[in-house]
Amino acid sequence: MSDKPTVAIALSVIGGIFVLVVGLLLALVGAIATFFVLGVGAIFGLWGVACGVVMIIGGGMMSSRPEEHATWGVLVLIFSVLSLGGLGGLGLGFILGLIGGALGIAWKPFVPTSAQPAGVRYCPNCGKAVSPGARFCPSCGRQVPA
Questions:
Q1: What would the pLDDT profile of 100-114 be if each residue is shown by its tens digit?
Q2: Please, which residues have CB within 8 angstroms of residue 1's CB and are 6 or more apart in sequence?
Q3: Shortest CA distance to 19 belongs to which of 43, 44, 53, 42?
Q4: Running DSSP on this structure, what letter comes out for residue 135?
Q5: In a domain, 31, yes or no
Q6: Residues 95 and 39 both lie in one domain
Q7: How many independent structural domains does the chain possess?
Q8: Same structural domain for residues 96 and 143?
Q9: What DSSP element (H or E) covers 80?
Q10: Cα 20-25-31 angle, rounded to 5 deg
Q11: Are residues 19 and 89 in the same domain?
Q12: From CA 12, how far away is CA 7, in angstroms rounded?
């Protein structure tokens, strides 16, 4: 197992790229079709671009802050659904974002159970080592069982 939600990161970023590219194309076609005045197609395209950017950032943040995986997974999930307003990356970006966000929410960090040094505990939320007397995880701040 990994110390990061690797599959969730990859699917979120790839889905975000699909949503972003289709949003850019939709904005371009919408702008050309209405003689470079922001028309309906351009507005939906820009919405797709914004959703794609947030999905990519969410995937990146799952990578850099894996202890906040649930928060970023929820954001990717929400903006995947909202990306349908900008065609959702022709459906593929929408589906990849949904799966990536759900995996980001459900991911559990690897907690080694064998060969644990005596007195060392691990946070059930982020998997980091917690000193024997600590009530809260120094990495993510969650309360750890005694």
A1: 999 999 998 776 665
A2: 109, 110
A3: 53
A4: S
A5: yes
A6: yes
A7: 2
A8: no
A9: helix 69-82
A10: 125
A11: yes
A12: 8
